[in-house]
Specification:
The complex is a heterodimer of chains A (547) and B (166). Chain A is α/β, with parallel strands linked by helices. Chain A has 4 domains: 94 residues, 3-Layer(aba) Sandwich (Glutaredoxin); 204 residues, Rossmann fold; 84 residues, Ubiquitin-like (UB roll), CATH 3.10.20; 88 residues, Up-down Bundle (de novo design (two linked rop proteins)). Chain A is built from 22 helices and 13 strands. Chain A has a 5-stranded mixed beta sheet. Chain A has a 4-stranded mixed beta sheet with strand order 2-1-3-4, covered by helices on one side. A 4-stranded parallel beta sheet of chain A has the order 7-6-5-8, sandwiched between helices. In chain A, strand 3 and strand 4 form a beta hairpin. Chain B is α+β, with helices and mostly antiparallel strands and 166 residues long. Helices cover 43% and strands 11% of the residues of chain B. In chain B, helix 2 runs antiparallel to helix 3. The chains are: A alpha/beta (547), B alpha+beta (166). Chains A and B meet through helix 2, strand 9 and strand 13 of A and helix 2, helix 4, helix 5 and strand 4 of B. FE2/S2 (inorganic) cluster binds next to helix 5 of chain B.
């Protein structure tokens, strides 16, 4: 199938139903849903029906528009207006104002840095297309990259293009994607697999989920292109069972793509075949680790194994396996469409392109954002995020979830890229970004992550299984005012031991939240231990005599 | 060697759903986790009898089945209460006070997270980020997400469930 034929398929869809005069897009992603956007959508539909203008105007459910804190969000096209905090009682007024002056009371300003400072590649369709309609995706150049690859490019040319783009894995570690693809392509044998890691484990983030729920075809297209490049014909999407909506939309998307011959046998009439199946995760953080994930697909307990051999050589059922993160795959089609050089022109020297972050915590604008690599933390938090609410003071920003660290004020002007974040003791991670003000206790935050790692440790190796429990115990004693300074020394010693002797990334990075808070907020630890006082007033301290 | 498929533990029609899952995977031992998902989705939890049946049907040692069922947090070996209250304990929600919600409910009903009240009315559960960080702290009451929940509001909701026929 040529790109032209793809487009024709779209125009056929359009011929069936004329383009509506107005389109009211209602965000039906998790955050807006929880402020009843489904009721808003229903009210708008009722309103159109009652006025008998349903055919010319359409109400459409779309994926995340980004500014979750202003939800429910409603965008009116082609008027170019976005409304915020919409309730079902606003429906009549919104319909009345179609094509007229926007309703001032509800207008969400879109000229603010929250919107203008973002650069959307992965999220280019989020909040615009209906995730359950393949026509919508194709209308926005979807699957043209796959068609082009199959038509004009050799697998090696595809890999070269990805290598040229400088794309690095978005699952956390930032391994160069082109290099990984080329390793799998070079591996011998005829059976190979492609796996998409959608086990999103960071307990404070939802980037992958949002991509899957808002634009599932983008991930499938990326996987198919990867399969062609490395020579695989079977793919698996490993998705958390806790994401039922993402699973449902993926199933729909796979079915639609198969029907149009964009997945399955003889894709686009070529000899290339690629099937995708979904495998459900079952709530174990460690299954995000690639070897554990593979064990889980094989029906076993998800426990990591030592590497090498890497999955690229010895993966699923012992065959060479390419495993990439959702966001990594989501970048593939745009890179093929616009060229590796285009992608490489965005970002910093070693970190190319954009990164999606789930911005949350003590900032005015919370939600999902996509920014070019190299933007500063200050721009993210104070321009896009709108600063700290309630006149409070910024204290730290946590990136990288349980494997990352807390970055204090003095590094606010540092560019966000893989290397810089590592230098200050954190990591890029998968994209969780939690802002904290002076009401957060850093020891308590470290304890939170240690509790997480302790609970999620798979128990295979001693340093992690026992070490995390010991560290958690000490942190608990510190936060309840029972610890001594010698225990603090022991905590530091344990950090070192667990970091260097654990088998997999979970154990190796578990001490990071403690290490980084100790590095920048040691005085808070000391206050808990020596003065039996929690400076932020979070921890329950014993009442001291004389007070 | 010929393998005769074992029959389900009961003649409950719902076992057909589970059988369909196993058939789709050709009764491959690799389909263990998919099958457990199917059992849990169909019956709400994994009963010991169900585990035995799955073990026989997929020819996987019962110890392995039990191992997988207990390794993954998503699987539960106990039936859930009539109503569920899932408190998000993801980072954003934690920082905005989710632990206070958990302890308020824990105290009121004498249940720890993961437990169900003795009368089977309410299960208190915790989750990681549910994608509503902008509205932290978030709680899911019987599948419905609510944002910016205070401990008092959470108790108000759960009391509606637990006091209606008291
Ligand atoms: C404990 C642990 C948890 C992980 N969780 C995830 C995850 O949730 N999603 C993900 O894509 N990668 C995760 N990873 C990284 C994967 O092992 C792997 O590096 C990644 O999927 C590779 O894809 P990429 O090159 O596209 O980043 C995790 C690693 C470790 C050690
Ligand atoms: S480091 Fe922890 S999670 Fe990783 S294999 Fe060892 S015990 Fe399991
Ligand atoms: S941390 Fe609770 S919704 Fe994200």
């Amino acid at each position: 199938m040529t790109p032209e034929e793809l487009k024709r398929l779209v125009s056929q869809g359009e011929a069936e139903r004329p383009e509506p005069k107005h389109r009211i897009c209602v965000c039906v992603a998790a955050a807006c849903l929880s402020s009843n956007s489904d009721q808003v959508k229903q009210a708008l539909e009722n309103e159109l029906a009652a006025r008998g203008i349903a055919p010319e105007c359409e109400v459409k459910g779309v994926g995340c528009m980004g500014l979750c804190s202003a939800g429910p969000l409603v965008a009116v096209e082609p008027d170019g207006v976005t409304y915020q905090h919409v309730t079902s009682t606003d429906a009549a007024e919104i319909v009345e104002h179609l094509g007229q002056q926007p309703i001032e009371r509800l207008t969400c300003p879109t000229e603010t840095p929250f919107f203008t400072k973002q650069y959307k590649i992965v999220l280019e369709n989020s909040g615009i297309i209906d995730p359950e309609k393949i026509e919508d995706y194709i209308a926005r150049d979807g699957y043209t990259a796959l068609a082009r690859v199959l038509e004009d490019m050799s697998p090696q040319e595809v890999i070269d293009e990805i290598t040229r783009s400088g794309l690095r894995g978005r699952g956390g570690a930032g391994y160069p994607t082109g290099l990984k693809w080329s390793t799998v392509a070079k591996a011998g044998g005829t059976r190979k697999f492609v796996i998409c890691n959608a086990d999103e484990g960071d307990p404070g983030a939802f980037m992958d989920r949002s991509v899957l729920e808002s634009d599932p075809h983008r991930v499938l297209e990326g996987m198919a292109i990867a399969a062609y490049a490395v020579g695989a014909s079977q793919g698996y999407l490993y998705v958390r069972a806790e994401y039922p909506l993402a699973v449902k939309r993926l199933r729909t998307a796979i079915r639609q793509a198969e029907r149009l011959g964009l997945l399955g046998n003889n894709i686009c009439g070529t000899t290339f075949s690629f099937h995708v199946d979904i495998r459900l995760g079952a709530g174990a953080f460690v299954c995000g680790e690639e070897t554990a994930l593979i064990a889980s697909i094989e029906g076993k307990r998800g426990q990591p194994r030592p590497r090498p051999p890497y999955p690229a050589e010895y993966g699923l059922w012992g065959y060479p396996t390419l495993i990439n993160n959702v966001e990594t795959f989501a970048n593939v089609a745009p890179i093929i469409r616009n060229g590796g050089d285009w992608y490489a022109s965005i970002g910093t020297e070693k970190s190319k392109g954009t990164k999606v972050f789930a911005l949350a915590g003590a900032v005015k604008n919370t939600g999902l954002i996509e920014v070019p690599m190299g933007i500063t933390l200050r721009e993210i938090i104070f321009d896009i995020g709108g600063g700290i609410p309630g006149g409070r003071k910024f204290k730290a920003v946590q990136t990288g979830g349980p494997s990352g660290g807390c970055i204090p004020e003095q590094y606010m002007d540092m560019p966000v890229d893989y290397e810089s974040l590592a230098v200050v003791g954190s990591i890029m991670g998968s994209g969780g970004m939690i802002v904290m003000d002076e009401t957060s206790c850093m020891v308590d935050v470290a304890k939170f992550f240690m509790d997480f790692c302790m609970t999620e440790s798979c128990g295979k190796c001693v340093p992690c299984r026992v070490g995390t429990a010991q560290m958690y115990g000490i942190l608990q004693r510190i936060t309840s005012g029972e610890a001594t300074m010698s225990e603090l020394a022991l905590l530091e010693e344990l950090c070192d031991m667990v970091k260097y002797t654990s088998l997999c990334g979970l154990g190796q990075t578990a001490p990071n939240p403690v290490l980084s808070t100790l590095q920048y907020f040691r005085d808070e630890y000391i206050a808990h231990i020596v003065e039996k006082r929690c400076p932020a007033g979070v921890c329950q301290m014993p009442v001291r005599e004389g007070h | 060697m010929h393998f005769t498929k074992p029959s389900p533990p009961s003649d409950d029609k719902r076992w057909r759903i589970v059988e369909a899952t196993m058939r789709r995977h050709g009764y491959d031992p690799h389909a263990l986790i998919e099958t457990l998902h199917s059992v849990q989705q169909t019956f709400g939890y994994l009963e010991t009898e169900s585990l035995r049946y799955v073990a026989r049907a997929l020819r996987v040692p019962l110890s392995k089945v039990y191992g997988a069922a207990t390794f993954y947090h998503f699987f539960t070996l106990k039936p859930q209460g009539e109503h569920t209250c899932v408190v998000c304990m993801g980072t954003a929600c934690y920082i905005k006070g989710a632990p206070n919600i958990v302890s308020a409910i824990s105290k009121e009903y004498q249940v720890q997270p993961g437990e169900t009240t003795a009368d089977g009315k309410l299960s208190l559960l915790t989750a990681r980020c549910i994608g509503a960080c902008g509205l932290a702290p978030a709680v899911v009451f019987d599948g419905e997400v609510a944002g910016k929940v205070t401990p008092e509001e959470a108790l108000e909701r759960t009391r509606r469930w637990t006091s209606n026929d008291a």
